[in-house]
């Protein structure tokens, strides 16, 4: 167990990041290599100093009791994330105007209640060589409210409203180490799957690596004991849970 501050996964200094969207496919990622399979789209460039933010709300209600006591109950609230994307990518264009029609080379932008629904993944690469991929387990709602344009490129804020699954699992996450050969993982996923024809799909252009982590990735092993998770670079003898929170 992590009993000193030096123990734990080294994700202290973020080096590169990318957000990806899958509006039409199944949102699949090869769990052994972190390769995005199917109709994933890159969100494009982000400002270098921007922050990807995840907000998970837990609502509390206090009830006063006799004897000067107080009882507090908790209920899950909304989960949202925000990312700053530079205009120009097809994914951002679709999120900004999800109900657009092209006729005779003219694009007609409709303003209605339609929002861009799809799977969302964020890739973080750290200076330590660790790559973290988190993906929504269900299709999320994506919106952009402000569309400012200035002389210098500026990010437009994409808000993602995450959806909880029937099993109360909202996200899947895996960590990888760049450049090692062994691949070991145990997880029961919906998005991270074993893709048998991965190389064929890469050759056909229907699977690709994130630009934030283009190198060879090796899945890290999540090891859990008494509710505390640690990550190992290779197979270990300690019990490994099936990935269900």
Note down, in words, how this protein is organized.
The protein is mostly beta strands and 245 residues long. A hairpin with a 5-residue loop joins strand 5 (53-64) and strand 6 (70-85). It has helices spanning 90-96, 198-204, and strands at 14-22, 28-30, 35-37, 41-42, 53-64, 70-85, 100-103, 106-109, 116-126, 130-136, 140-144, 156-161, 171-178, 192-193, 207-208, 217-219, 221-225, 228-232. The radius of gyration is 20 Å and the shape is globular. The model is unreliable at 180-188 and 235-245 (pLDDT under 50). It has one domain (19-57, 74-219). The protein contains two helices and 18 strands.
Concise account of the structure shown:
The chain is mainly beta and 245 residues long. The protein is built from 2 helices and 18 strands. It is globular and about 75 Å long.
SSE succession: EEEEEEHEEEEEEEEHEEEE
| Helical/strand content category | mainly beta
**Mean pLDDT score, rounded?**
84
State the domain count.
1
Outline the biggest β-sheet. Answer: 10 strands, antiparallel
Based on CA inertia axes, which overall geometry fits?
globular
Q: Number of DSSP strands? A: 18
SSE blueprint and pairings:
Blueprint: E1 14-22, E2 28-30, E3 35-37, E4 41-42, E5 53-64, E6 70-85, H1 90-96, E7 100-103, E8 106-109, E9 116-126, E10 130-136, E11 140-144, E12 156-161, E13 171-178, E14 192-193, H2 198-204, E15 207-208, E16 217-219, E17 221-225, E18 228-232
Parallel strand pairs: 2-14
Antiparallel strand pairs: 1-4, 1-9, 2-3, 3-15, 5-6, 6-12, 7-8, 9-10, 9-11, 10-13, 11-12, 13-16, 17-18
């Amino acid at each position: 167990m992590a009993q000193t501050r030096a123990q734990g996964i080294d994700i202290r200094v973020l080096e590169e990041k990318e957000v990806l969207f899958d509006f039409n496919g199944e949102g699949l990622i090869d769990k052994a290599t972190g390769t995005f399979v199917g109709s994933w789209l890159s969100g494009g460039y982000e400002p270098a100093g921007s922050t990807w933010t995840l907000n998970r709300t837990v609502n509390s209600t206090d009830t006063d009791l006799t004897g000067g006591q107080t009882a507090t109950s908790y209920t899950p609230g909304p989960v949202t994330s925000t990312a700053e994307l530079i205009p120009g990518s097809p994914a951002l264009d679709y999120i900004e105007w999800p109900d657009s029609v092209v006729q005779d080379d003219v694009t007609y932008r409709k303003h209605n209640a339609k929002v861009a629904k799809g799977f969302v993944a964020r890739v973080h690469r750290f200076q330590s060589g660790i790559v973290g991929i988190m993906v929504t387990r269900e299709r999320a709602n994506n919106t952009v409210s402000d569309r400012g344009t200035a002389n210098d490129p500026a990010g437009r804020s994409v808000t993602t409203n995450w959806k909880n699954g029937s099993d109360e699992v909202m996200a899947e996450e895996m960590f990888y180490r760049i450049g090692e050969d062994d691949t070991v993982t145990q997880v029961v996923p919906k998005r991270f799957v074993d893709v048998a024809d991965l190389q064929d799909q890469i050759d056909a252009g229907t699977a690709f690596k994130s630009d934030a982590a283009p190198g060879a990735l090796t899945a890290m092993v999540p090891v859990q004991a008494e509710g505390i998770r640690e990550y190992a670079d290779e197979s270990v003898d300690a019990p490994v849970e099936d990935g269900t929170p």
